[in-house]
């Protein structure tokens, strides 16, 4: 896989970093969640004992459920045909228009991506930044920032 292809697989058309998304089973979040679950092993059986020492462990079953979900993931990136955000129109729109990223489309400035307001603003900012920086520099910039 070329560097450009790897970056296109990792960076979604909207500019989000699918490679680090909590729903991507191959992301650091997914891998580290599985590693933590393995390390904790059967701790759930001992959580009641530890809850007597520190009440925070009363919620261990909830934590374990979240940890399991993070370890499974459910999406490997919207370019694979699945998007966690069901109303997002970006992946279909870029495919129909034959572009890899929204900023490459001449209609980018007037688009409605079908995202909630905060995420729509982030989508617009991400694409402007990609256009200014170039994809490789943008991906490096994203990698140095917290994902959420």
From TrEMBL:
Domain of life: Bacteria
Organism lineage string: Bacteria, Pseudomonadati, Thermodesulfobacteriota, Desulfovibrionia, Desulfovibrionales
Protein name: DUF3795 domain-containing protein
InterPro entries, per the entry: DUF3795 (IPR024227)
Organism: Solidesulfovibrio magneticus str. Maddingley MBC34
């Amino acid at each position: 896989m070329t560097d450009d292809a790897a970056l296109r697989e990792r960076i979604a058309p909207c500019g989000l970093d699918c490679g680090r998304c909590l729903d991507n089973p191959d992301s650091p979040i997914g891998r580290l969640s599985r590693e933590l679950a393995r390390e904790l092993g059967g701790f759930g059986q001992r959580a009641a004992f530890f809850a007597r020492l520190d009440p925070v462990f009363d919620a261990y079953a909830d934590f374990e459920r979240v940890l399991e979900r993070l370890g499974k993931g459910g999406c490997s990136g919207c370019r694979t045909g699945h998007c966690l955000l069901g109303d997002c129109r970006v992946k279909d729109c870029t495919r129909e228009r034959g572009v890899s990223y929204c900023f490459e489309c001449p209609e980018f400035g007037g688009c409605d991506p079908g995202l909630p307001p905060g995420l729509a603003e982030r989508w617009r900012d991400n694409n402007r930044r990609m256009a200014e920086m170039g994809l490789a520099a943008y991906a490096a910039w994203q990698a140095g920032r917290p994902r959420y």
